[in-house]
Structure formats: structure tokens, C-alpha cells
Amino acid sequence: MAERLPPELWSYIFDLAADEDxxxxxxxxxxxxxxxxxxxxxDEWSVRTPQDTxxxxxxxxxxxxxxxxxxxxxxxxxxxxxLVRCLFFDDPTKLRDLRHIxxxxxxxxxxxxxxxxxxxxNGRGPTMDDFEEPLLAILAQTPNLEIFIVDWPMSTAxxxxxxxxxxxxxxxxxxxxxxxxxxxxxxxxxxxSLPNLISVHLTFDAALKEPDTITLGSAESVKxxxxxxxxxxxxxxxxxxxxxxxxxxxxxxxxFSFDFGANTHDMPDVVGFLAQHxxxxxxxDLNCIPALDIRTILDLCPILTTFCFNLDWKILPASLTHSxxxxxxxxxxxxxxNRPHEHIQxxxxxxxxxxxxxxxxxxxxxxxxxxxxxxxxxxxxxxxxLSRASFPRLERVRILSPLLLQALNDANGPRPGExxxxxxxxxxxxxxxxxxxxxxxxxxxxxxxxEPGYEPDGSDTEEEDEEEYYTDDEEARKSARVSNVGxxxxxxxxCRRMWAQxxxxxxxxxxxx
Length: 513
Description:
By secondary structure, the protein is α/β, with parallel strands linked by helices. It has 18 helices and 14 strands. The protein has helices at 7-18, 50-69, 73-85, 94-104, 132-139, 158-168, 184-192, 239-245, 270-277, 294-300, 327-331, 364-367, 369-384, 402-410, 418-433, 462-468, 472-480, 483-504; strands at 36-38, 46-48, 86-89, 114-117, 147-150, 174-180, 199-205, 231-236, 255-259, 283-287, 306-310, 346-350, 396-399, 436-438.
């Protein structure tokens, strides 16, 4: 029977077995993407970030595809295209091997749709510049590449990589680049040559030379038009880039994320950028330590449905100025809006590490009690401002830090006393408004896994939970067995039943020409 099935049906079966829908989605995970709980055998629960989950999905999909092509010659012939459709590397030295494979069979590059190079060495080992030549050769043979992610710092190699993308990869829709900030001009020219991008993530490291000596040259006068760009994520030292982007034309921009890390100086002009592009945004994520003018920002973004900010910000009451920032400002009630925001339904909260007295923040309770008290007061004031008066359609408030959730689990909940009472106050406030208070796993804040059979709240189906709870160790054991072959056998049995039905009443697409 297997020989009688048409190649199109086998391709459909292999596509289902590879389970790569989430991998080929053009959008990149935001801070609101839910984390998951994982637990290895005889180990404690740990929080897995959305990016870690995607990486594991890619590894598991690759293991499934390897099992397919090793089953028989027929399946190897039909399934090889699936093996190269998504390429995931945590070791750039493997790029040389891939280049040799594509050189031997030039037709394989046509099937590549996603190339993902992630960074696991924490600054040690070789750099991406050391693998410029094989990467350029690979890109030149992948004309249908749609997603190109390099979460590995690039320096001198970026110019040549961007030029190769422009020349050969006309189907590119998603780009994730990690470069030093002195290469901003090259990034601008790269974006100018790739007008069909839908999602862009840019991480700018600190400049390798004095920032005052960095110039944009002719790129400063470029007024980009990116008609299809819907998602933009800027991280790190992006001051010059954001200033330039404020003058661009981005008619389809729906999602903007900004992450300034632990930096506190030379803040980009976020308000100026949103003054130009905020009117179309549905999703806005601002993760930085210095407080921003949140009321003005929400006025500039009238149709937002999701808004994320740092709950540690010290936000002054609207009636006070920064010169009045004293005890009176700490005691006066604040508002996050100048007028009710009619569209925001989901609010994400960064920070909050001091709120519950767990993790590294617990050491500051005795070492620096004043700092802890001030941040906790800001947390309480800002959380109190999440009211129906300001957000009449609010449905969900989510604490976004995986680190905080892990610390809560390790400490078995908030620190007794004021920190636990704070959790109770926040819970009661949300319950009175019929708003769901969540942690980053989309479970209720305070619901922690207690036993091996526990399933966190917020999962969609039992099957999805099973996938999300896979660990690397479990995955290695499963790939060593024939579990993937078992799944394919079930699919094969289903095909046999389908084929038996066709003998009685063949559907139109099986009729002979």
C-alpha cells in the first residue's frame, strides 16, 4: 500500500509529523508570550522561557524528521526536503558542514525556509565573523528563505551578510540581527534593501569605540518606507536608530517592543517615536528602568489592546511636576491615563522583583531597606492605578518576569508578612474588578506546581501540556527510542483506512486523469 500512495499525501503526512507551524510563524515572541513549567526526573520545577520552548520544538522536529528519512529509501527520498526546511544551530561550526552538504546537492537549498543561529556560549569561543564565508555561501543557495535569526553578535560580517540577503533572499519576511551600535548605518541600508519584511528584531550592543565618534553618514538622510512591517523590537543601545526611525513611513506597524536592559543613561526618545507611529499600534511593550511619561504615551496610542510597562517606575501624580517629587508625591494617588483608555484589555508588568521579597531582591530587605521600601511603594501605587476608571475593558494583568516566577517557586510563595499581604491586596483588587491576575506562564499568580502530576493553569489542551513539559533529557531519551516511528505507524494505519475507502468510492483527487 505504501508504494501506491501519491507523493503529495506522503508530504502531507510528513508535514503533520514535523509539527512546524509555530516555527514558521513570521512573528517573533513578545514579552506576553507564555512561559512553561518543565521538570526533569528527580529534579525541581523550572520555568522555561518562550524562546527556550521554540528551540526545543525545533530540536524535537529535527529528531522526528531524522526518524522519517532513516525509515526506508522511499521515505528518505520524499522526506529530505523536510529535513532542511528549518535549520537550527547552537554551534556555528556546523555551518561549514551545512555548506558542504548544499554544495553537493544544490537543490536542497531551495527548500530552506528558516535559518536560526542561537548563542549558548556566553561570550566564549568563536564569533560569527569567523564563519562569514560559509554563511554567505549558504544564504546564496537559499532563495526561499523566509526567516533569518542570528542571536549571535555580528560585527564586520554584517555588511556582507546584509548584501547577500538583498541579492538572493527575496522572500525574507522575518529578520533577527544582533550587532554593535556603530553598525546602525549598515542596518538602515539593510532594511532599505529588504522592503518586504514583516517582523524585525534588532539588538544593539554597546559601541566598540567612543559613541561620539559614530556617524551615520549618508544613512542619516534615508527616509525608509517599510510598507509591510508589522512588528518591531529594539533592544539595547538603539538611541540613534530610534531617532532615525521616527521619520520613517511604517503604515502597517502594529507591535512595538523596547528593551533598554539595565541601562539608565542616554535614553532613546521613545515618546518622539510613538508620536509618529503610535496611532496604529495594537501592542506596546516598554521595558526600561527610567520612568517614561506613561500618560502621554497612552494618549499617543489610542487603539492599543495590550500594554506592558515597568511596575517599578516612580510615576508622579498628574498635578505634580518633577520639582515637586517629594513625600507629597509618594502619598498622592496617581493615574496612568489622562482619560479612560477604551481599548486596552491586557496589561503586562515588568519589574516587580522587590514586591514579594524573593530571589535576589530578598537580600536587599536587610542590606538596603530604604531602596526596597521605595520600590515596593511604587509597585503598590502603580498597581492601585490599574483601575476600571482608567481601563474600562481590562481583562488580564500578567507579571512578566520568568525570574520572579522561578524565585516564587523556590521560596514556596511570597515572603511572609508585608510581601504576602501585598500579594493578597493585588489579588483582591483584581478579583473585585473581575480581572485575571497571572504570572508569566498564564497561570494564576500564586498557583505553583507542587507535585509531578500538577498541570499549570492556562494550558489549552492535554496534548500541548505534554509537549511543553518535555525536558532536554526526556527529549534525548525519546529520540533514542522509536517513538517517532510509532507515530508514523499510526499515520500509516490511518492512510490504509483511507485507501480502503477509496477502493469503494474514490474521491475526485484520486481519479485517473
